[in-house]
Amino acid sequence: MDNENRPEKKHGSLSDTNKKESRQLTVMTIPTVIWFSLFCYLPLFGIFFAFKDFTPVPGDSLFKNLFVNSEWVGLRNFSYLIHNPQSLSVITNTLAYNAIFLVTGIVIPVTLAILLSEVHQRKFQGFVQMALVLPYFISWVIVGYCVYAFLSTDTGVMNSIIKHYGGDPVQWYQSPQYWRVILISLGIWKSTGYTLIVYLCSITTIDRTLYESAALDGAGFFQRVRYITLPHLRPTIATLFILGIGSLLNSDFGLFYQVPMDSGALTDVTQTLDVYVYKSLMLNANFSYSSAAAFLQSFVGCVLLVISNLIMRRVDKDSALV
Amino acid sequence: MRLLKRIASAAVAAALSLTMFTACGEKEDYGKDVIKLRWVTYESSVPPDVKDVIKEANEYSAEKIGVVVDLEFQPTEMINLTMASGEYYDIIFTCSWLNNYNTAASRGMFYDITDLVQTATPDLYNVIGEYWDASEINGRYYGVPTLKDMGSEMMFRMNATYYEDEKGMTIPEEMKFEDLEPFLEAYKKDNPIKYPLAMDKSGIAGFLNFLEKVVDNYIVIPYDSETPEIMPIWENEEFMKRVRLLHKWYQLGYINPDAAAMDYSGIAEDTPIRTGVAWRGYTGYSNPAYWDFRVKLSLYDGPYISKFTEQGAMFAISAGCDEKHAEASLKYLELLNTDRKFRDILAYGIEGRHFNYLSNGTVMKTDEGTDGYMPSLFTTGSVTNASVLSVSEDYLSDPELWTKVFEGYKEYGIWSKSGGFIYDTKRKEDIVTMLSAIWSNYYTDMITGTSDPDVIIPKMKKEMEDAGLEELMDDIKSEFEKHLAENK
């Protein structure tokens, strides 16, 4: 009995410290909990907009307008998306661009992060890092005008170069064939620096002695990357990948709307779901329609996220999110 | 845990009170018997001196009728949201081309002023007169039409110093759209690297105004046919002729190559041909001292008058107002429509600081006025009741301009034969949304001449048909027949 009691008592005191610790940890989460409840959970009632014909009476509160004054209409607000012959091309565009960004968003920053981690001159590393992150902070509107300075038909840099070498000027904003490449390069240019930092941080947490012993055993650069760096980066890559899948139907509005200057001739390659919703609702400010579109995006994103997480759990349990 | 609870409850309370504040709006009285109104109007930017001007106007109106206002200038997106979210206001700017008057009124968002305006403000009722028709929906009025240019007249504003003095050409008072070609050609010949008809993606001002709009711009009723007929825009021959012409001009280099991609561009000041929507006798943008050349207007379209154009600017009162506030709002609008001195304050600012009266009764802005208070006339009240603006002391406008413009409508106005037909797009909102998105994809390329209309219009037509154009047309046509039968 004594023998059995002792460890239990010990265990009891341990759980006391555990409790204290977990209380401290709980208190530390308060700001996040408040943030999420205010800005993520509280506005969730907005989902009802998607299923109501929102008809406000001026002066009534938003809640009364939404729940009392507006009628239920079932899925009617979705019909402009579902019965739309354009939807197919819009959704294909959105998925295709996102799939490309998903892959390039891993391959390029990971490669750069590995190369950069091999650079031992601190100042140079800092400079490259800053140069890569900088585009992330430039607004798409400004990027759009810079691109215009390059691609303008009569005064643009590109056409000046083409003319200088005797070619015919290109009407860039009327030529959809170039824009997939332009948009993808710009997307990569703008986002790479940011994800690079995430990967670079993960690399710095890897125990340096692993590399040293590998080097002693005669492992070359590629072997070190293959057997040490990449396996350690796997959870981070998996996390970012799964999160990326969750937003497969969302697209960077600025990139696809501001940069091509909303040029009609480019629609076939620039129209993603966000752009389409903005364009079709810009005129009539219909809350119900836009919430329906947003709901669809989140719903599909959520389903994809759960599925990819399930698959990930089968393949590699440690890298899955939940 | 207790701490956590306390913090959480405080946060929830703060969030709730925040939503309550935004929901209630400000509905307070100002002073003893003075009523304060929240007046929301449209303007792309807020004039810097607006506070001083409102103070001056409030002193005047408080003494005259015991009403003051809190005037807010809101750009398109914002005023649309103010309406769509059901925010509280007393008076709001509404019209056919922004926060749709017809939809909002038929959905019960505006106060029915039919009886109140006749009993409480008979002067206002009489001033608007026959133009009350503009706000009529099923025999009731939900808004006060603003008396301004009631029809659309489109004109070219041309550099007369260049064309008449240098080139010896004559700019006629009126011309046809296609008559512009020799002027474009002449300028291009002299200035091969410049564009005589430079434009941004909004194209030629009022380009589609020669058609009565039914849905957006793409379903229209031509003014010229004997019996009114509803059609998709590409079935109108004049439209096709004009877009083909624009494409030809584009290819000849009369229009800048990136017009379809350019937003609010600063088009060079020496561009010899600009386009505008105005009225006979309009003198704005004509001051030779400013432009360095004489500007001559040449009318090519209109005046076209339909319910759509008559609804160009209106003020409506919120359905959430009690009778006291509704009456005060009408009193205020009455003062704007009948008292010229008061009207001039909101139109031009403070006398002596922002503007001065000239010898013939017209008004000239000071430099401070040009920078500090320059809202469009129609956004702050009646246009016809405001004094007429002259561009310089040597270049006086006609003080009786508006009487002549209104007489002109009777004389040579091209009136719609649709009997004030308005289609309620809420009936087929999903199709209209789809079609509008398709239309907007092709619109800029079409109106800037960038793409060949004989290539893109068939493509657009096909897409629109797939999205349900026929169903929409059938519904509009049956509604139109019903409307014609009722109004016989």
Overall pLDDT level of chain B:
87
CATH class of the largest domain in chain B: Alpha Beta
Shape field of chain B: globular
Mean pLDDT of chain A: 87
List the helices and strands and how they pair.
The complex is a heterodimer of chains A (322) and B (488).
Chain A: H1 2-41, E1 52-53, H2 62-67, E2 71-72, H3 79-82, H4 87-117, H5 122-133, H6 140-151, H7 157-164, H8 179-204, H9 208-216, H10 221-246, H11 253-258, H12 267-270, H13 273-281, H14 287-315
Antiparallel strand pairs in A: 1-2
Helix pairs in contact in A: 4-8, 4-10, 5-8, 8-10, 10-14
Chain B: H1 2-24, E1 35-42, H2 50-65, E2 67-74, H3 76-84, E3 91-94, H4 101-106, H5 114-120, H6 122-128, E4 136-137, E5 140-141, E6 143-145, E7 152-159, H7 160-166, H8 181-190, E8 211-215, E9 219-222, E10 231-232, H9 237-251, E11 273-278, H10 288-291, E12 295-305, H11 307-310, E13 314-317, H12 323-338, H13 340-348, E14 355-357, E15 363-365, H14 367-372, H15 401-412, E16 414-415, H16 429-447, H17 453-466, H18 469-486
Parallel strand pairs in B: 1-2, 1-3, 12-16
Antiparallel strand pairs in B: 3-13, 4-5, 6-13, 7-11, 7-12, 8-9, 9-10, 14-15
Describe this structure in words.
The complex is a heterodimer of chains A (322) and B (488). Chain A has 322 residues and is mainly alpha-helical. Chain A has 2 domains: 74 residues, no CATH class; 237 residues, Orthogonal Bundle (MetI-like fold), CATH 1.10.3720.10. Helices cover 69% and strands 1% of the residues of chain A. Chain A is built from 14 helices and 2 strands. In chain A, strands 1-2 form a two-stranded antiparallel ribbon. In chain A, α4 packs across α8, α4 runs antiparallel to α10 and α8 packs across α10. Chain B has 488 residues and is of the alpha+beta class. Chain B has 2 domains: 186 residues, Periplasmic binding protein-like II (D-Maltodextrin-Binding Protein, domain 2, 3-Layer(aba) Sandwich), CATH 3.40.190; 253 residues, D-Maltodextrin-Binding Protein, domain 2. Chain B is built from 18 helices and 16 strands. Chain B has a 5-stranded mixed sheet. A 4-stranded mixed sheet of chain B has the order 11-7-12-16. In chain B, α16 packs antiparallel against α17. Chain B is globular. Chain B starts with a helix and ends with a helix. The interface between A and B is large, with 53 and 64 residues.
